[in-house]
Amino acid sequence: MPSVEIVAVGTELLLGQLVDTNTPFIASELARAGIDVRATQSVGDNRERIAAAVRTSLARAQGVVMTGGLGPTIDDLTREAVCDALDVGTKLYEPALLQMEAVFARFGRPMRANNRKQAELPTGSLPLDNPRGTAPGFVAFASDGKFVACMPGVPREMKPMLREQVVPFLRERFGARETIVTRVLHTIGLGESEIDHRIADLFGSYENPKIALLAHDFRADVKIMAKAPTADEADAMIAPLQAEIVRRLEDGVFGYDADTPASAILNLMRSQQRRLAVAESCTGGRIAAALTSVAGSSQSFVGAVVAYDNAVKISQLGVDAGTLQRNGAVSDDVAREMARGARARLGANVALATTGVAGPDGGTAEKPVGLVLFALDDGTENSRVWNFRLEGDREAIQQRATVMALNLLWRYAKGQEP
Amino acid sequence: MPSVEIVAVGTELLLGQLVDTNTPFIASELARAGIDVRATQSVGDNRERIAAAVRTSLARAQGVVMTGGLGPTIDDLTREAVCDALDVGTKLYEPALLQMEAVFARFGRPMRANNRKQAELPTGSLPLDNPRGTAPGFVAFASDGKFVACMPGVPREMKPMLREQVVPFLRERFGARETIVTRVLHTIGLGESEIDHRIADLFGSYENPKIALLAHDFRADVKIMAKAPTADEADAMIAPLQAEIVRRLEDGVFGYDADTPASAILNLMRSQQRRLAVAESCTGGRIAAALTSVAGSSQSFVGAVVAYDNAVKISQLGVDAGTLQRNGAVSDDVAREMARGARARLGANVALATTGVAGPDGGTAEKPVGLVLFALDDGTENSRVWNFRLEGDREAIQQRATVMALNLLWRYAKGQEP
Q1: Could you give the CA distance from residue A231 to residue A176 in angstroms, rounded to a whole number?
Q2: ipTM attached to this prediction
């Protein structure tokens, strides 16, 4: 069975200064294309060691997919090392050079001599375009026909190159293979152990499709993976299992695959012709940032006030100075007035407000670090305040609070009791 | 020079379903202990392939540190594979068995027959205690004296085993070794190739301390790593090189190590007793989120208005309806009025505003996707507007615009012409 190996290049990977997310991304795209990954390696910016790693991987597999070390600096040695491993020279690829010149012109930056070496690719290579950056990729070939596909290490350059050029090359090279289709069910507001409790019996009973539970960013996803000759057949295998999982987790599944909590909320708000505003204190703009990540968000998201200073809570949101003085900024009444003010002043139908103690300083016995209040105001008696004690450091508290705010908004828009 | 390799075991790593955070954790602990990591591998739950990976790493380095595959299931094959690679048998380690029984008793769970095999370690091994789980680790030895240290894959079991048992073993094994100290110089507003151009000659001339250039999040960092018997000696080696690099990149280095662009800006603003406000359209809250990530940001950051809807630009920032109608939201005048309004209404001394076309829709020939305007207002004739054409998808444009805004704010606070 044909297989490839992945080799990631960069000394920072060996010092543990960077978590390698490129390798899992490449691995998962290859799995989707039905291409087996035999093993992976990472190696530092050292010509001999890179070449040795390439030789090791080529001895074990039919080809190697590499990322990193294609830049213009003296530390970027992948091109040279691949030439060493394959025992070929380099050649200037004019089209690659022209494309680099075009990218530099578009960025309005001068192209230097050290950039030119990026267009010198192993002789006999298939060049890979990199419209998002200056380092072209390439697929180089050994005399026995095995290949080494090299991509930049910058994720936003590597990912489209992999999907648009390397995966099609591999598919053709290995012939039509099995496809792995993955469906991700995104949940919010359900704990990992709660989900596990509700669907544990399904984990063991299925090998294909296979189920996995992934917790991340203070939420959990359920992943269903099916392997079949075609995507349609894999979809058909996924459907009944998906239906069963959704039935059991109905109160928590907000979307699938590319959906985000924000896109789910804005879709509901748009269909209800509601306009949403946000007043953020301790979340500091994170809820607005999540909502505006969604293309077309302006249709139902009007804006936010990040009211960090109390004076801003008063001037921009109309919070009463007396309320602030009597109860403090982290109080039910202030949260309520922030939400009411945001709704009225930003011209929205619904507004959510956050106020809390993100830390590390500013906590008291009564209002400890991690205390976060949320208020929702839609001008009716449904308006409410919640308070939670969140765990973690400043960043974790801000992020958890953002996910909680999105959870409350989603449940509100669904008409579910949050 | 003695070095080790890291081998992580688990098929999920090859399917990209899990980002391997164990390898960078191990790598960074070893770097701190002055132990060189030559390369890393990951391999699936396959006895032959694990054994082959161990042999490959042992051929290249003095030892191997492994994680994963020590559990009780049929998929856990690290013990057997290490025996194959080292050509040794297994032996029941009574103390390991007793400890496992104690852990099971403490967890109140029955110990099954398949758990028993976890106490069968390669003959001649040094067992490693695992008080937090059921799988003991071990260090096995080859006939030539090289070693393979195996730890479980569960991070909360692996981490203390590494710190408390494996690192001390390695330190002793390799004798008193050196420490690696890393200094990171963070830059903003300088391109990677510009930095390379200015310091390229330093890359080649230094092996220790060593320099690396890392581009990420639309910025670049220069990393200086020094290896020495003590941290003080490493610091002393770093100092002159750091001074030289800072001299050459003076217009771009905003901070060191844990500093962020936001913390650098807020430090300057605080020392100048200035108060900052932000008005965000296309960046949607990201600038505020970056600023409020900094503990104590409330001292110099008053807040932001995320003015996504034009009505919010008018009501919250006092942008003139006529200006909006005549020039459109993405225009110099609107940017200028947003900044002026934010400064005045939020009670700040300085305000920065963003407005642009983040896409994917909404672009025109005159105002294409990626056009972003920035205005800075401090109530003096220093107030200015800049416009840039940014590359990438919606997310990249929003993130690049955020970094540019931070760059402009930092240069302003430094008194540098942006």
Answers
A1: 12
A2: 0.79
